[in-house]
């Protein structure tokens, strides 16, 4: 297995409407604005996004951007910010996480700024990240875990061509003590290339 530190991973790339770029020092203020605008939506599924329960501030968003960039360089996580290529506005966040380089496999996480929802941006980002993982990182599997009640998220998975593999019942507990079911979606390398995975 190649050392992940030596794997060339793009720091930015474009899809049709998005610029997908690693967070960098100085991006904290724009990230804070997107989070502050979207708190009500982000806090609807705290078992999936526990960090959204904290009170946001510019300093914590800037700290995230700096640690995210460091994690990217160390290949611990591959976080990205999503920008509208025309306006330059921050659309949301996504990235590859919980990697297993020996397979290799990756998990995609995502959230969308409230004012940018229902425009297809996140579906486009998920497709772009999955394609990058398969084409440039040699992924054999890309997966997404969504709260069963988060219909918008699992519809993104389906529009992006991921297959529902099953539902993990009572898989996690929310801060209020309720148990949550988690949908598992995945796409395989052979299927992404249109081949039979036999």
Set out the fold topology.
Layout: E1 12-14, E2 18-21, H1 28-42, H2 58-74, E3 78-84, E4 90-100, E5 105-112, H3 121-137, E6 141-147, H4 151-159, E7 163-173, E8 179-188, H5 189-192
Parallel strand pairs: 5-6
Antiparallel strand pairs: 1-2, 2-3, 3-4, 4-5, 6-8, 7-8
Helix pairs in contact: 1-2
Your description of this structure?
- There is one protein chain.
- By secondary structure, the protein is α+β, with helices and mostly antiparallel strands.
- It has one domain: 3-Layer(aba) Sandwich (Aminopeptidase).
- It is 31% helix and 31% strand.
- It contains five helices and eight strands.
- An eight-stranded mixed sheet has the order 1-2-3-4-5-6-8-7, sandwiched between helices.
- Strand 3 and strand 4 form a beta hairpin.
- Helix 1 crosses helix 2.
- It is globular and about 40 Å long.
- The model has no long low-confidence stretch (mean pLDDT 93).
Question: Could you list some keywords that capture this structure?
Answer:
alpha+beta, single chain, 198 residues, Aminopeptidase, 5 helices, eight-stranded mixed sheet
Low-confidence stretches: none
Beta strand count: 8
Instruction: Quickly give the CATH architecture.
Output: 3-Layer(aba) Sandwich
Distance between termini?
A: 24 Å
The largest sheet is: 8 strands, mixed
Give the neighbour order of strands across the main sheet: 1-2-3-4-5-6-8-7
What would the average pLDDT be, to the nearest integer? 93
The total number of structural domains is 1
Structural class: alpha+beta
> What does the radius of gyration come to?
16 Å
Which of globular, elongated, flat, extended, rod-shaped describes the shape?
A: globular
CATH class: Alpha Beta
**Number of separate helices:** 5
The SSE order reads EEHHEEEHEHEEH
CATH fold label = Aminopeptidase
Q: In what range is the share of β-strand residues?
A: 25-35%
CATH H-level superfamily: Gcn5-related N-acetyltransferase (GNAT)
Proportion of residues in helical segments? 25-40%
